[in-house]
Design brief:
Elements lengths: L2 H25 L4 E2 L2 E2 H22 L5 H14 L3 H34 L4 E6 L2 E6 L8 E4 L8 E6 L2 E4 L1 H4 L5 E3 L4 E2 L4 E2 L4 E7 L5 H14 L3 H8 L1 H19 L2 H10 L3 H20 L7 H7 L4 E5 L13 E4 L4 H11 L6 H12 L8 E6 L3 E6 L2 E6 L1 H6 L6 H10 L1 E8 L2 E9 L4 H6 L1 H4 L2 E5 L8 H6 L5 E3 L4 H13 L3 E4 L4
Parallel strand pairs: 12-19, 12-21, 19-20
Antiparallel strand pairs: 1-2, 3-4, 3-5, 5-11, 6-9, 6-11, 7-8, 7-10, 13-18, 14-15, 15-16, 16-17, 17-18
Helix pairs in contact: 1-2, 1-4, 2-3, 2-4, 3-4, 3-9, 4-6, 4-10, 6-10, 8-9, 12-13
Length: 505
């Protein structure tokens, strides 16, 4: 158990003890100790942080929202309303405990990010392999990352072709095919072959470490509502005191005057806002959504234009099959052929095909001489027949033709096609959509964004077919240069409060 968690447990125990004392006082079971009302002791114990913070603010010539609460509590003590004073400070104590609990959950989410960072790396030094802590890696060194291992540092691939699961960085459900010269990031998973990587950043300088630090800073940053509470305290406090003075002038009743002070305290802003913001940031982090700060959450409430940049932004994080288009065989036969070829592959597309074969109660035969080709597909022999399942490049390299129209249809639908061939003959295609939930996301636009837009530079063809599959998205753009996309976003955001999803922004 770390020190921070131990301190939180002590705080929760302290709050529980104070609550029990308050309950005993209210029930009349235990109201005095050494002639002092226990409610006074409870007030001082529960509110010492608030009193200290208010005094410090006054010494710094600042008026914070806590000062109004302290004025009300002191007034209650002076007129003998000890229980009311204790209740007010106990509410603050409970609120601080809730905020601490929310912060703990946020910290746990950050720790899960950090856990994805390998602690050691295999580096080539002095003509051999050495296992060293990742903190001791230096830019320019060559590290080895085997299949199934996480990459310990940011770098550039020197040798090896592999599929890299980058979902921890960008949320993409499909692994990215990487080749020599491509950039890779710490915490991502090498799925296929041994890679040699030249280190560019290590330790706290890596992308994933910076992501974790970003979430931590976001949870600590004050939101505009919190700052607004303190900003207007200098106007609120005089107004509160004036209201109390008028109440006493009209009623000559100190109890009613103190009641005005207690009721008017801005407890909602003091307690609820930071607790809600910290809890929201932590909850989003656990779902893989990173928030730069509480101020971003507040601006999101005013958003009425949402721009999605690139296809992978609106995804569920899992792969499903949308269409099975057979050519010369039945759909079940096509699925069985593809499942046989992909039998030894761990690629998400392969797993989706094998899952579909199981759903259809098919029993594909494991292939002989199976070969997995990173970035292209898989092939093998079944009963002496050569079965291929992969992309257009793989089929073209093996002399297979007749699939071009299927590739065009898949592109128009925003799907990834797995093309299947049997003994050199094209047998069909299996479509796996790249953006399955776009329809549902657009359908909820009334609560999220009144005019959702989608811009992308990844579409190679006019996106008419894609638009049919994503109703509710009003505007599309394709094949745009970065400057054109930026100009388009600016023009749309000037028409309303805008936000962009994609490219890590």
């Amino acid at each position: 158990m770390n020190n921070e968690r131990r301190e939180r447990l002590l705080y929760y125990s302290f709050a529980a003890g104070v609550g029990i004392l308050l309950l005993l006082n209210w029930l009349g079971i235990f109201q005095t100790i050494f002639g002092i009302n226990t409610a006074i002791i409870i007030t001082l114990l529960a509110g010492y942080k608030t009193f200290y913070g208010s005094m410090q603010a006054l010494l710094e010539k600042r008026i914070s929202a806590d000062i109004a609460l302290c004025v009300a509590v002191v007034a209650a003590l002076l007129v003998g309303e000890y229980l009311a004073a204790a209740e007010a400070m106990f509410i603050v104590l409970v609120g601080e405990g809730l905020e601490s609990y929310a912060a703990e959950r946020t910290t746990a989410a950050i720790e899960r990010f950090v856990e994805q960072l390998p602690r050691t790396a295999v580096v080539l030094r002095e003509g051999g392999e050495r296992i060293v802590p990742t903190s001791e890696l230096h830019p320019g060194e060559i590290i080895l990352v085997r299949s199934g291992e996480r990459i310990p540092a940011d770098g550039i691939i020197e040798s090896g072709f592999s599929s890299i699961d980058e979902s921890s960085i960008n949320g993409e459900p499909l692994p990215q095919e990487k080749k020599p010269g491509d950039e890779v990031f710490s915490g991502t998973l090498n799925q296929n072959v041994l890679l040699k990587i030249r280190v560019t950043r290590s330790g706290s300088d890596t992308t994933l470490a910076q992501v974790a630090e970003l979430v931590r800073q976001a949870s600590e940053r004050q939101s505009p509502v919190e700052r607004t509470a303190d900003r207007y305290a200098k106007y609120f406090l005089p107004a509160l005191l004036l209201s109390a003075a008028l109440t006493y002038a009209l009623t000559r009743d100190w109890v009613r005057t103190v009641s005005v002070l207690i009721v008017a305290c801005p407890c909602a802003l003091i307690l609820a806002t930071p607790t809600a913001m910290v809890a929201a940031i932590g909850g989003l982090a656990r779902r893989g959504i990173l928030v730069r700060g509480a101020d971003v959450l507040e601006r999101a409430a005013k958003t009425d234009v949402l721009v999605f940049d690139k296809t992978g932004t609106v995804t569920e994080g899992k792969v499903t099959i949308s269409q099975v288009l057979a050519a010369g065989v039945t759909a079940d036969e096509l699925i069985s052929l593809a499942a046989s070829a992909e039998h030894a592959s761990g690629h998400p597309l392969a797993r989706a095909i094998l899952s579909e074969a199981g759903r259809r109660n098919l029993a594909p035969r494991p292939p002989e001489n199976a070969e997995i080709i990173p970035g292209r597909g898989a092939l093998g022999y079944v009963n002496g027949r050569r079965i291929i399942a992969g992309n257009a490049d793989l089929l073209r390299e093996n002399g297979v033709t007749g699939f071009e129209s299927f590739v065009t249809d898949a592109d128009e639908q925003g799907a990834t096609p797995v093309l299947v061939a049997d003994s050199g003959e094209f047998r069909g295609a299996i479509f796996l959509p790249r953006s399955p939930p776009a329809r549902r996301a657009a359908g909820r636009r009334s609560t999220a964004a009144s005019r959702p837009h989608r811009s992308t530079h990844l579409y190679r063809r006019p996106p008419a077919g894609r638009k049919r599959h994503c109703p509710g998205i009003e505007n599309y753009a394709s094949r745009g240069r970065p400057s054109a996309r930026a100009k388009g976003r600016a023009s749309r955001e000037t028409a309303g409060a805008g936000a962009q999803a994609g490219h890590g922004r």
